């Protein structure tokens, strides 16, 4: 009888030990950074900004362009510091892209701060812009120059 009790206890302990062993699950994101970026764009287009932000963040490590879009979302939410940081990251990762420079210049213009830097950024954006888009960038540059002139007259 004693052997039976010991055997049952041993089997019970083994059963509990087997059931309580931790399991390690390795999850791999099935989406590429490009797919996350595309989903972010689709969600942003549909006004689902939180979902867009999540997908941009998932893409940002591999795709600097995602920082540009994160900056745009932050700008729209008036999270100025975050927008500025994201645009700066986009500029660093996309040295030949005019968009983040223009948007950071626009942020400074909108806030009425760093107008000298805003003018530099807007000029760089205009220089980098494709010919067909240069007009938009020149408009930003002109508005910033007007604001700087008005600031100097005050």
From TrEMBL:
Report whether Nuclease shows up as a keyword of the record.
no
The record, for InterPro entries, names:
TPR-like_helical_dom_sf (IPR011990), TPR_rpt (IPR019734)
Q: What is this protein called?
A: Tetratricopeptide TPR_2 repeat-containing protein
**Which PROSITE patterns does this chain map to?**
PROKAR_LIPOPROTEIN, TPR
Q: Which UniProt keywords apply?
A: TPR repeat
Q: What is the lineage of its organism?
A: Bacteria, Pseudomonadati, Thermodesulfobacteriota, Desulfovibrionia, Desulfovibrionales
Q: Among its keywords, does the record have Secreted? A: no
Signal peptide (from-to):
none
**Residue spans of the TPR repeats:** 33-66
Q: Which organism is it from?
A: Desulfocurvibacter africanus subsp. africanus str. Walvis Bay
Q: Which domain of life is it from?
A: Bacteria
């Amino acid at each position: 009888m004693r052997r039976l009790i010991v055997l049952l206890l041993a089997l019970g302990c083994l059963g509990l030990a087997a059931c309580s062993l931790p399991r390690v699950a390795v999850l791999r994101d099935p989406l590429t950074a490009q797919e996350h970026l595309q989903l972010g764009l689709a969600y942003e287009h549909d006004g689902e900004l939180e979902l867009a932000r999540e997908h941009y963040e998932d893409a940002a490590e591999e795709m600097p362009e995602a920082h540009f879009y994160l900056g745009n979302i932050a700008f729209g939410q008036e999270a100025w510091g975050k927008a500025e940081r994201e645009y700066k990251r986009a500029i660093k990762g996309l040295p030949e892209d005019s968009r983040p420079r223009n948007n950071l210049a626009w942020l400074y213009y909108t806030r009425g701060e760093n107008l000298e830097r805003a003018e530099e950024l807007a000029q760089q954006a205009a220089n980098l812009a494709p010919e067909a888009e240069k007009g938009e960038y020149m408009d930003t540059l002109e508005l910033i120059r007007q604001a700087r002139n008005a600031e100097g007259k005050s």
